[in-house]
Write a structure and sequence with these properties.
Layout: E1 3-9, H1 13-26, E2 32-39, H2 45-53, E3 59-64, H3 69-83, E4 89-94, E5 97-98, H4 104-115, E6 119-126, E7 136-137, H5 143-160, H6 165-183, E8 190-191, E9 196-199, H7 201-204, H8 219-230, E10 234-244, H9 248-253, H10 257-280
Parallel strand pairs: 1-2, 1-4, 2-3, 6-10
Antiparallel strand pairs: 4-9, 5-10, 6-9, 7-8
Helix pairs in contact: 5-6, 5-10, 8-10
Length: 281
């Protein structure tokens, strides 16, 4: 089985370099490729990555002339892996995700033989606080849920200019945590964390990648909606493990915390609108 890793890169050279090196160093598997997608970096880091890894036949750097965002940037690699490399499995992973598990690929193949998933997610361990990020409690069940979140992100974006958005966000997080403890639906009604997604041929043969209407954030919600709409299976694979720095690229790009929060709010708002449109369609 041919496994292709797609790593989306934007400016943070050292983080991407380390991510690729962990795969090359640790994987005990023969038939794999690594596609680095330079998402319109203007600092020349895409060309640097090409020079650094040109001696490896399994590594290829694809370049986009402009920043297409998360979904469309990843889709460049997804489509190349599908059409040019004829991948059996495509793994979309953030450039701040590291694989240290030597039998990572073998675990995926073993679990696929048992569960026949279309999309899967590994155990993602945060290097910030040690938290296990997968699976994620499902956020949206109806148009009403999405509409509420759209309004909330719009309000947070507005309040960020008044420097009071964090007060509202803290209050909301406390309510959400209590609600999660009460429902206890996590393991039977979940979605997958977007920092590392594993697609089998069941998905690859029928799709061209992620929903291309968003710029950044909300891809997991849309993928979960697509799974329900199109009846394909999503599985959590606890035996496959990766490490995640968290926000490696956004931290490198946004030095101003208020600007980073506004970017998060406005793009989540736009992604909610896309999800609403999909639900109506």
């Amino acid at each position: 089985m041919k496994i292709v890793f797609v790593i989306l890169h934007y400016k943070s050279l050292n983080v991407t370099k380390k991510s690729v090196e962990t795969i090359l160093k640790n994987l005990e598997y023969q038939n794999y490729y690594i596609l680095i997608v330079d998402n319109g970096s203007l600092d020349g880091s895409g060309r640097e990555l090409h020079q650094i890894f040109k001696k490896y036949s399994v590594v290829k750097v694809l370049e986009s002339k402009k920043n297409l965002g998360f979904a469309r940037g990843n889709n460049i690699g997804f489509r190349y892996a599908k059409t040019m490399l004829k991948a059996d499995f495509i793994i979309l992973m953030n450039n701040d995700v590291f694989i240290k598990q030597k039998d990572f690929c073998q675990v995926i193949l073993t679990m696929y033989a048992q569960k026949k998933f279309a999309v899967a997610g590994p155990d993602i361990i945060s290097l910030k606080n040690g938290r296990h990020q997968n699976p994620v409690k499902r956020e949206y069940y109806s148009k009403k849920d999405v509409l509420f979140r759209t309004i909330r992100f719009g309000l947070l974006w507005f309040l960020s200019f008044l420097q009071v958005d964090q007060i509202m966000q803290t209050f909301y997080v406390k309510i959400k945590r209590n609600r999660t403890k009460r429902t206890k639906k996590l393991m039977r009604d979940y979605q997958l964390h977007g920092s590392c997604l594993i697609f089998s041929s069941q998905f690859i043969n029928n799709y061209q990648g992620l929903c291309s209407r968003t710029f950044m954030y909300g891809e997991e919600n849309i993928l979960r909606f697509m799974a329900d709409r199109d009846s394909f299976s999503m599985k959590y694979l606890p035996k496959a493990k990766v490490c995640h720095i968290e926000e490696g690229t956004t931290n490198a790009v946004f030095k101003n915390k208020a600007q980073k929060r506004r970017f998060y709010y406005i793009n989540n708002l736009k992604s909610c609108i896309v999800l609403l449109q999909l639900m109506r369609e």
